[in-house]
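Technical annex, item 7. During the second reporting period the consortium partners agreed on a shared format for inverse folding records so that results from different sites could be compared directly. Each record opens with the tokenized structure and is followed by the designed sequence. A conforming record, contributed by the partner at site C, is shown below for reference.
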């Protein structure tokens, strides 16, 4: 019978290594799982340790083969949207007393939604072979990011998976609610823009040509405002399509340039200089930093790994580069509040609260308080943006409609006065 060498950790987190006799690698993993060993490597006959990227019989990495299979069934392939529903369902079952593996097995046969069912089935397939939950999740990078996987791995190592799931779900729910608020805040201004555009197009392409024909049939010289309005209507009729195409091409070109590293750095720097958007971007960075770092530290992730993962969660590249430098200084021994102060990206009050948390040995609590405060700040700014954009659109529409009315009425009066003469 083949002999397999293994390394891993037991339920207490103690490192274990040894040999086990089993008919196959899968059986070896099952035996070790039954003994409560969280396997990190299994090697047959002292060969090279199996790595996460070990190639299958076709010579391709297992993760690559998985992604290839998923691409062939893209209509039911799990996506990032399935992450939160899966974690919520898993948390409910684990809270009820089931182990993580048994909970995933139950979900794989109970869930009806196709994408979520495929995710659960894929996870159970790997867990049944002896892989821990975190390693099974790592085979689905399109669903679970590194931060989520590391948190689950920390929960497994410390035996506090249920608490970790609860904190992670709360964190992801807060992010989802923030995105919902952003979309809700933008919905009304976007609607007003479409309504205003429809009103303007109605005047330029339907009403104005008929009034123009009527006024020209009556004769007389039309005032400058009416001539300008007719010129705009004529220009829009003949060249409007080309203007729209030019705007679309310009927008596509700008977006492609922004997708490049240099373009992203430049545009992110521009955003920070804008009067309203700049403070909003800063608030987003503070919220992302405080939320992510507090969750990671609270769940046992080391400070170095937590800082690096937090860095990847910051969207603005100018702030991300500054935070990367701050992370390097922290790893060299500098205090977190001092290192972040050097970046010049964070408000003074945030730095003071962070410094107090460091001095009292309660950084996580300070980060949570900062997160709660900036959730309110962002909600208030979103409400302000909605009001400003909606008011600006309405004002622009009123001005343009007023100009159209003035041009038409003045033309009617001038033509009428020419008849009196």
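Designed sequence (site C submission):
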């Amino acid at each position: 019978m083949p002999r397999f060498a293994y390394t891993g950790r037991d339920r207490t987190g103690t490192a274990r290594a040894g040999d086990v006799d089993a008919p196959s690698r899968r059986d070896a993993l099952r035996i070790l799982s039954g003994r409560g060993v969280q396997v990190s490597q299994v090697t047959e006959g002292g060969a090279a340790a199996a790595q996460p990227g070990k190639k299958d019989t076709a010579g391709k990495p297992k993760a690559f083969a998985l992604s290839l299979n998923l691409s062939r069934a893209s209509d039911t392939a799990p996506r990032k949207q399935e992450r939160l529903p899966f974690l919520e369902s898993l948390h409910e079952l684990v809270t009820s007393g089931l182990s993580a593996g048994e909970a995933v097995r139950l979900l794989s046969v109970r869930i009806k939604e196709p994408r979520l069912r495929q995710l659960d089935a894929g996870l159970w397939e790997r867990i049944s072979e002896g892989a821990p939950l975190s390693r099974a999740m790592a085979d689905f990078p399109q669903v679970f990011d590194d931060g989520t996987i590391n948190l689950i791995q920390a929960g497994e190592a410390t035996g506090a998976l249920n608490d970790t799931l609860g904190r992670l779900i709360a964190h992801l729910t807060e992010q989802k609610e923030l995105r919902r608020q952003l979309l809700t805040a933008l919905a009304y201004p976007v609607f007003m823009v479409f309504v205003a555009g429809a009103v303007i197009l109605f005047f330029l392409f339907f009403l104005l040509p008929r009034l123009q024909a009527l006024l020209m049939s009556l004769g007389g010289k039309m005032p400058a405002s009416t001539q300008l309005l007719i010129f705009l209507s004529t220009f829009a009729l003949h060249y409007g399509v080309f203007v729209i195409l030019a705007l679309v091409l310009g927008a596509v070109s700008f977006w492609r340039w922004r997708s490049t590293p240099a373009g992203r750095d430049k545009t992110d720097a521009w955003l920070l200089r804008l009067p309203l958007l700049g403070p909003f971007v800063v608030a987003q960075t503070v919220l992302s930093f405080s939320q992510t770092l507090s969750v990671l530290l609270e769940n046992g992730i080391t400070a170095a790994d937590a800082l690096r993962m937090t860095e990847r969660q910051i969207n603005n590249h100018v702030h991300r580069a500054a935070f990367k430098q701050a992370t390097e200084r922290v790893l060299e021994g500098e205090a977190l509040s001092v290192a972040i102060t050097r970046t010049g990206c964070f408000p003074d009050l945030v730095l003071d609260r962070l410094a107090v948390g460091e001095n009292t040995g309660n950084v996580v609590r300070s980060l949570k308080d900062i997160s709660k405060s900036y959730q309110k700040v962002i909600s208030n700014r979103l409400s302000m943006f909605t009001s400003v954009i909606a008011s600006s659109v309405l004002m622009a529409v009123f001005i343009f409609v007023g100009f159209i009315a003035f041009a038409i009425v003045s033309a009617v009066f001038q033509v009428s006065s020419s008849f009196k003469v």
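Residues 272 and 281 are 7 Å apart (CA to CA). The longest helix spans residues 161-218. All partners now use this format for quarterly exchanges.
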